[in-house]
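Could someone model nicotinamide-adenine-dinucleotide with this protein?
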Amino acid sequence: MTLRIGLIGAGIMGADHARIFAEDVPGVTLQTICDADQNRARAAADASGAKHTGSDPLAVIADSAVDAVVIAAPDAFHAPLSLACIAAGKPVLCEKPLSQDVRECLAVLDAEERKGKRLVQVGFMRRFDPSYAELKSLLTRGELGKALIFHCFHRNVSPAYDFRAEMAISNSAPHEFDAARWMLDAEIATISVFRPPAGGAAAPVFMVLETTAGQLVNIEVNISAAYGYDVRGELVGEKGTASLRAPVNADVNLGLRQYSVYPADWRPRFVEAYRRQNQAWVNSVTTGKPNIGASAWDGYCSTAVAAAGVEALTTGRSVAVRQLARPRFYA
Ligand SMILES: NC(=O)c1ccc[n+]([C@@H]2O[C@H](COP(=O)([O-])OP(=O)(O)OC[C@H]3O[C@@H](n4cnc5c(N)ncnc54)[C@H](O)[C@@H]3O)[C@@H](O)[C@H]2O)c1
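Reply:
Sure, complex below.
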């Protein structure tokens, strides 16, 4: 018995999900790959061996031959398509963010609770990254003592979409917001946003967050870092610190230099995280057992932080995150 997946959106991320399911996740069939651009759907289907292609996401969700759905279309489609999956009673792995709009996230929470079943997992795959998992495990085992500070850096070569500082906060930084909430086991209470005036229009965005447990998180999102795709993090505890280590496959010695190579984008850096995330999602859909993946509630929380962050950017003030108390349904 295999899980028949309908994949919506076959761009950079969707095509990568298709490859991961086809090559590295046992127990699934790629039933349909759907994209508004038929050529992209066809190319991803040919590369992954998917059975069908389509261009209508709602038809894919309604298809009785589709058991579960992956959404990798642009952000604006995440909440409407997740709502359609919930209405159809189908589990969905939805790329981050759940929505850039807090009200849309609340509509997803409301729909799930009314359905009485948690069907949405949000693609915050860093929870599954071996390096993030090691830091989390050091904290859980008490080896670092109490967590005090989490330093985070998120650097892209160049903007994947449009560059606006708001996008850095509402599209890129939710990864860091979720990772911080998950790592520190606390909610984000306030956020301040700074940009170096010397950086001009493409200046990095620098955020300082306080958690409800009294910890500090600083996040640099630099979408125009030029030198490579680079995600770093260092956890400062009472007794010691621990840093993320990105997978590096070779140290090169050449021409009187020693160096290693940065990937051009996120796919090589998080290849194992995506694989583990997708396998864990399939396992929990088929067994009914939960995994450590982000729920719709986690998706809502990171969007609530992003909304406060955009307000902090606009006003120049520290902004308190307006977030509901966690409903019992998401305990
Ligand atoms: N988890 C991660 O690390 C990660 C990394 C990159 C992107 N993402 C997220 O994945 C999503 C896709 O990003 P991308 O980089 O692949 O973008 P992309 O532009 O490369 O791909 C998006 C695809 O969706 C298609 N599309 C647009 N509207 C559609 C619709 N209504 N129905 C079906 N297909 C539609 C487009 O034709 C395109 O092929 C974004 O929401 C982004 O935030 C997540």
